[in-house]
UniProtKB/TrEMBL annotation:
This is Cyclase. InterPro entries: Polyketide_cyclase/dehydratase, START-like_dom_sf. It comes from the Bacteria. SUPFAM superfamilies: Bet v1-like. It comes from Streptomyces avermitilis. The lineage of its organism: Bacteria, Bacillati, Actinomycetota, Actinomycetes, Kitasatosporales.
Amino acid sequence: MGVGDAMAGRSLVVEWTGARYADGPTVEVPVWIDAPPQRVWELVSDIALMPRTSPELQSVEWLDGRRGPALGARFVGRSSHEALGEWATTSHVVRYEPPRVFAWAVEDPELPSSVWRFELEERDGGTLLREWMQLGPGRSGLSYAIDRMPDKEQKIVFVRMREFETNMGATLDVIKKLAEGGRDEVEA
């Protein structure tokens, strides 16, 4: 199963709200996984796996000599998007509660361009995994698009949130496949 077909059968949930960037819009995508939380945790806390699950994230690397996640740890992520180009960001782990919560703030942890979070909950003999993200309040690449077309801000935000939702669904589908079946089942 590759990232390209990971969203087959999943319907989009993000609806038009007229949200602006300053509203701090959020999106959350859940998936139930037939595996214990510890197995799922091993996958979501392995940032090196994430480029294999995301159509946008190209590579990640721990900074400051780190080899794994911890509260306050930093990592750089390199991304690519057809309309936005290529960029790199530095993320800061802001919540690390194994095996329940792994969250990071992008760029400035006090005024992040976005915050991302995985939450795990033991449920029905498996794991309910939720991936959540919030845009802003700090500036991001999206801010520059809005600066160029302020009259289209709500549409720009809506389209980007839909993209995040789609990509998050693809990520969760790959994590589910790996957790339930093994690492060899997802193409690199």
